[in-house]
Amino acid sequence: MNTPDARKTVVMVVDDAIDSIRMISDALEAAGMTVLVALEGNQALTISRNITPDIVLMDAIMPNMDGFETCRQLKQNVEFIDTPIIFMTGLSDTEHVVMGLNSGGVDYVTKPINTAEVLARMQVHLTNARMARSARMALDTAGQNLFAVDRSGDILWATPQVHFRLTDGDTDHQLTLSQHLTEWLTHKPENGHSLTLDFLSEPHSVEFLTLVDNREYLLRLQEVQKSSTATAALRDRFGLTGRESDVLLWIANGKTNREIGQILEMSPRTVNKHLEQIFRKLGVENRTSAAALAIKCLANS
Prior knowledge:
This protein is of the alpha/beta class and 301 residues long. It is built from twelve helices and ten strands. It has helices at residues 18-30, 41-48, 67-75, 94-102, 115-141, 160-167, 171-186, 227-238, 242-252, 257-264, 268-282, 287-300; strands spanning 10-14, 34-38, 55-59, 85-89, 107-110, 146-149, 155-158, 194-197, 204-212, 216-223. Helix 8 (227-238) packs across helix 9, helix 9 packs across helix 11 and helix 10 (257-264) packs across helix 11 (268-282). The longest helix is centred in the middle third of the chain and has 27 residues, at 115-141.
């Protein structure tokens, strides 16, 4: 996370009322926090491109872009997935509370602001966010590149390495990823099934692990060897056709005939026919032996 001072909690306050900002800023700075100020939604979005605060205090009603829309757009930035956004509003009716929570907020406080209450609520959400972030960093350290998406293919959470690899620093990749995942998930993949992401700068695949609470799809991101190089090595070493080398590559990656059929857009029966030729050319009798020879070939190449 990029912050001006990593030793202090960084708070972004988004409010069009100068007096309100001054009062809140004084209280936050007195509590030892660094305060970033945005007078309207677009300023908050501009700041977010360079700095990811630890927490955001968001005025709900502002001119041009209200707090609800600002919150939605901030949450489209993967760096803000763990950043709690607390709404400040004079509107305590159910409709506006629901709007704030649905747009990505975690809590709300009503105006006039009670600074002691705000600080207490902030500490709770900061603690939760830091625990979640630490858990995801631990998964990264253990080599578990996990993430979760909703039914629309939008990322709900991800480990830091997954964030980095999936976005490639390009916001267009996020939209492309959502489109690919949405289409894939509509086919209800089974545990262990994979989807190849060929639009990233480095080839990766996504493995389906499970559906949590009927709403959160748990996935694992995996690196795959560039098929052009790998299949060429297999083709040249064993005298395979292009399609046979494609099948053998995925056999070496532990895929079943059904999974290979999905990846290469062919029927499992066609995959099996290719396997018969692969076994004959490699002089082996089963897929385990074929995979072992392929892995050895790829390691040497």
